[in-house]
Design goal:
The chain is α/β, with parallel strands linked by helices. 47% of the residues lie in helices and 17% in strands. The chain has a single domain, classed as Ribose 5-phosphate Isomerase B, Chain: A (3-Layer(aba) Sandwich), CATH 3.40.1400.10. It has a five-stranded parallel sheet with strand order 2-1-3-5-4, sandwiched between helices. The termini are far apart. The mean pLDDT is 95.
Length: 145
């Protein structure tokens, strides 16, 4: 898979560690930056690229993961889930078809983050699963406005 990464400046080293790990898992990685102190800019850029299917999925990092999630979710076609444990990483994909995950570098350790990323990237949304109607409702709402 092609995985896009972005972060705010405070999470740069954390992001680099995740990029190296994802490369080891066999995925292509793309660093969309971390220089801009306005984390919304890189989050929006990443979300636009993932929504346009330039990349298969995105991983965004800031202090808590919350700010980049809010910013990414403003982009039509971007579905960002802020995750803090492996179960949330699983459900982000299996229950919500999230095409982006966000992680807080100041609240999640790097080894846990690697476990979460590995789990998230190993799963695929089941279009016939029990969450199908729930996710489709989100898509319908997004297209109503």
């Amino acid at each position: 898979m092609k995985i896009a990464f972005g972060s705010d400046p405070n999470a740069t080293e954390f992001k680099y560690a995740l990029i190296e790990y994802v490369k080891q898992l066999g995925h292509e990685t793309y660093d969309l930056g971390s220089e801009d102190p306005i984390y919304a800019n890189v989050a929006i850029d990443c979300a636009k690229a993932v929504a346009a299917k330039k990349y298969d999925r995105g991983i965004l990092v800031c202090g808590t993961g919350i700010g980049v999630a809010i910013a990414a979710n403003k982009v039509k076609g971007a579905y960002a889930a802020c995750i803090h444990d492996v179960y949330q990483a699983q459900r982000a994909q299996l229950s919500n078809n999230a095409n982006i995950i966000t992680i807080g570098a100041q609240v999640v350790g790097i080894e846990l983050a690697k476990c979460m990323v590995k789990e998230y990237l190993s799963l695929t949304f089941d279009i016939n699963g029990r969450s199908k109607n729930k996710v489709e409702r989100i898509y319908r709402f997004e297209n109503e406005s």
